[in-house]
């Protein structure tokens, strides 16, 4: 199954980028994957990364994406708590 990398709601792009940066602990969302790679010890470079394994790439994406999902769940739970 092919993945869709396009944001379904274009107006949400800035919010998603801000969330990515927050999860990675950086101010710039473009630097997020490099910050995560450094944390987990994967030698990610800004140029060619063809020597990285699928497992290494998955660790970066998994940590970043998983952190974003956890943060979104936390935000939703907080909003539900405010409604009562």
Mean pLDDT: 91
Number of strands: 0
Distance between the termini: 40 Å
Helix content: 55-70%
Uncertain stretches of 5 or more adjacent residues:
none
Put simply, the count of helices is 3
Percent of sequence in beta strands: under 5%
Radius of gyration: 15 Å
Pairing-aware structural class of the strands and helices? mainly alpha
Name the shape in a single word: elongated
Series of secondary-structure elements, N-terminal to C-terminal: HHH
> What's the story with the biggest beta sheet?
none
Kindly describe this structure.
The protein is built from three helices and no strands. It has 84 residues and is an all-alpha fold. Helix 1 packs parallel to helix 2 and helix 1 packs across helix 3. The longest helix has 30 residues.
Write the layout of secondary structure elements.
Layout: H1 13-24, H2 32-40, H3 54-83
Helix pairs in contact: 1-2, 1-3, 2-3
Main features:
84 residues; elongated; mainly alpha; 61% helix; 0% strand
Sum this structure up briefly:
The protein is mainly α. It is built from three helices and no strands. The chain has helices spanning 13-24, 32-40, 54-83.
């Amino acid at each position: 199954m092919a993945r869709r990398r396009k944001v379904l709601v274009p107006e949400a792009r800035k919010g998603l980028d801000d969330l990515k940066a927050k999860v990675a602990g950086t101010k710039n969302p473009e630097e997020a994957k490099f910050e995560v790679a450094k944390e987990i010890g994967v030698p990610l470079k800004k140029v060619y990364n063809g020597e990285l394994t699928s497992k290494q790439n998955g660790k970066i994406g998994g940590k970043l994406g998983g952190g974003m999902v956890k943060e979104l769940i936390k935000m939703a739970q907080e909003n539900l708590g405010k409604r009562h």
